[in-house]
């Protein structure tokens, strides 16, 4: 049988539809400081190829032809590509219509803009941005609805610091590039998002709890007689310097961001209270001759105690409701993903979740199979 010539891209009267599917086999460390994460990912692209319709197995060597149309996909947010393997295969449906499936297994480091306002109670949306060298008039990137994207929770490494949510959400967008003479070129982009919830226990017990204890110790300086304000100031200054040291420790756990996180607010709030206690002890030196000074000192320690308790109660309420609102969005996304998975896989989806994700790849592998 004579081999059919591959269809040239210029022969297409409309944009090609390319269906994408992503499988996260392994997710490594999520680096907050570098704003990146490591992952082992399979990116599967599927598109219709009419030039291969009704072909036989011997004819499939045409798939290696450089004249065959290709989507020219790129990973936009990849920082460092350790190793990448590509396999290509052709599948036919019942009508012997040909579909080319290109699978890439990528192990690399991916950049991600982290929203750290709620740190260490934050929930991060990690993404994989797939785009093409072809313009939006030549290619359309779509999510593969017949084979859902998946994430392997058993392949998550950073489980001590993060909790991985088992859903993937896609977002379609267009990148616009401006060239000379104000010419615009638009390139399609499909983003695959998954969420990771930070486990805040380390920061709560090792920083926030210790910081609260240090701040509460400032109330014990009022036990020193008002006639010895220099001892009060010495003790309070020591506590304030300890708080500054904790602030430097926190700065090493975060990138250089221009806003305050929840952890910053908590530490700065405690430092402000220590500062106010120091100011009060300085004022005491100017009121040493007043007979009502002991009464004022008792009022001051009560006021500072109420400020300390009120600050932590309000802080806890804000953190609780902010985290709760964000988790509602996560639960909704998981519910939507589960409904979509049940519509595709049926009741077997529950068993599929427990199945390890494995697949062997060979460079330029060409096979033939039938899809329903």
Automatic annotation (TrEMBL):
Membrane topology recorded in Swiss-Prot or TrEMBL: Multi-pass membrane protein
InterPro entries on file: Neur_chan_lig-bd, Neur_chan_lig-bd_sf, Neur_channel, Neuro-gated_channel_TM_sf, Neuro_actylchol_rec
Predominant location: membrane
Entry-linked Gene3D superfamilies: Neurotransmitter-gated ion-channel ligand-binding domain, Neurotransmitter-gated ion-channel transmembrane domain
Spans through the membrane: 202-224, 236-255, 267-292, 298-321
SUPFAM superfamilies reported for this sequence: Neurotransmitter-gated ion-channel transmembrane pore, Nicotinic receptor ligand binding domain-like
Gene Ontology, cellular component aspect: membrane
Family matches, as Pfam families: Neur_chan_LBD
GO molecular-function term, one example from the UniProt record: transmembrane signaling receptor activity
Keywords per UniProt: Membrane, Transmembrane, Transmembrane helix
Name this polypeptide is given: Neurotransmitter-gated ion-channel ligand-binding domain-containing protein
């Amino acid at each position: 049988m004579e081999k059919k010539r591959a269809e040239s891209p210029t022969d297409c009267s409309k944009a090609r539809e390319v269906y994408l599917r992503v499988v996260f086999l392994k997710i490594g460390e999520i680096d907050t400081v570098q704003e990146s994460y490591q992952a082992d990912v399979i990116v599967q692209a599927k598109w219709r190829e009419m030039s291969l319709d009704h072909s036989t197995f011997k004819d499939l060597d045409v798939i290696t032809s450089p004249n065959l149309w290709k989507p020219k996909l790129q990973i936009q947010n990849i920082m460092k590509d350790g190793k990448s393997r590509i396999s290509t295969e052709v599948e036919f449906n019942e009508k012997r219509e040909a579909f080319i499936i290109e699978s890439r297994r990528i192990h690399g480091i991916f950049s991600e803009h982290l929203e750290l306002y709620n740190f260490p109670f934050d929930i991060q949306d990690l993404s994989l941005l797939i785009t093409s060298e072809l313009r939006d008039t030549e290619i359309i990137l779509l999510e593969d609805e017949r084979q859902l994207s998946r994430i392997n929770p058993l392949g998550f490494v950073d489980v001590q610091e993060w909790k991985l949510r088992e859903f993937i959400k896609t977002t379609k967008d267009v990148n616009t590039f401006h060239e000379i003479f104000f010419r615009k070129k638009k390139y399609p982009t499909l983003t695959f998002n998954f969420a990771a919830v930070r486990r805040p226990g380390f920061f709560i017990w090792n920083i926030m709890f210790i910081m609260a204890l240090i701040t509460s110790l400032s109330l014990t300086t009022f036990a020193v007689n008002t006639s010895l304000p220099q001892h009060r100031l010495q003790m309070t200054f020591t506590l304030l310097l300890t708080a500054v040291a904790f602030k430097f420790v926190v700065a090493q756990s975060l990138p250089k961001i221009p806003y305050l996180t929840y952890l910053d607010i908590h530490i700065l709030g405690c430092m402000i209270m220590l500062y106010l206690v120091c100011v009060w002890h300085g004022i005491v030196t100017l009121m040493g001759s007043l007979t009502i000074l002991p009464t004022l000192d008792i009022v001051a320690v009560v006021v500072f105690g109420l400020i300390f308790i009120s600050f932590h109660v309000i802080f806890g309420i804000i953190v609780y409701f902010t985290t709760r609102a964000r988790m509602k969005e996560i639960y909704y996304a998981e519910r939507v993903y589960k409904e979509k998975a049940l519509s595709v896989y049926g009741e077997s989806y529950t068993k599929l979740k427990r199945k390890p994700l494995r697949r062997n790849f060979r460079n330029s592998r060409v096979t033939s199979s039938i899809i329903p």
